[in-house]
Specification:
Helices cover 34% and strands 19% of the residues. By secondary structure, the protein is an alpha/beta fold. The structure holds adenosine-5'-diphosphate and magnesium ion.
Length: 175
């Protein structure tokens, strides 16, 4: 099944890619159904972001992580577990080819224990960031430290990007 519907995000792909390359943190705010959760990760995948490492997308709910992985994998025309995969708890559909991973916030928090600089990713998307759950708040605090440390790495490609998806995040600008 190929997802061919035109969504609001589609008119802003080039601008989005320019901004995500230019800035270390990008906040994407658009109405529900605009394509934030599906088209934005797919656009990054198609543009070659995550080429060296991976694009990781967190979701507050397990169901969203698996549904999005299936949907985006189909939209990309690849098998689940190929270019697009997911990880929820210990369950995963991934392979050496996987460049875009949908996961729960808990998975990223667990990975921070063993990989404190998240070297396996070059883009991290915190989707549904406006919900400000406990895990998300913890991730925001920890990622702030990761961004500061990884921006010291010499090559541009090694600087991770954090893309906070969804509506405005109260308090973020003051941090
Ligand atoms: N699992 C799915 N099944 C059917 N349609 C879907 C699914 N996921 C996304 N879509 C389609 O993609 C559109 C964009 O969804 P999404 O990227 O989740 O929007 P946003 O994150 O901006 O709210 C939806 O309006 C819907 O038409
Ligand atoms: Mg969404």
């Amino acid at each position: 099944m190929f997802d061919s519907m035109v969504l609001p995000f589609d008119g802003h792909v080039e601008e989005f890619l320019r901004l995500i390359r230019a800035f270390q943190i990008l906040i994407l705010a658009a109405e529900t159904g605009a394509g934030k959760s599906t088209r934005a990760p797919l656009a990054m995948l198609k543009a070659g972001l995550g080429g060296n490492r991976k694009i990781g997308v967190t979701q507050p709910r397990r169901m969203a992580a698996t549904l999005l992985a299936h949907w985006v994998s189909d939209s990309n025309g690849t098998e689940l577990g190929g270019a697009v995969g997911y990880q929820i708890g210990k369950e995963f559909e991934m392979s050496r080819d996987t460049r875009l991973v949908f996961m729960t916030e808990g998975v990223l928090l667990a990975q921070l224990q063993s990989d404190p600089l998240l070297m396996r990713y070059d883009v991290i998307v915190l989707d549904e960031a406006h919900e400000r759950g406990v895990n998300l708040d913890l991730l925001l605090a920890l990622l702030k430290g990761v961004l500061a440390k990884r921006s010291d790495l010499p090559c541009q490609e090694s600087t991770p990007k954090v893309h906070l998806s969804d509506t405005a995040i109260p308090g973020l600008r003051e941090q």
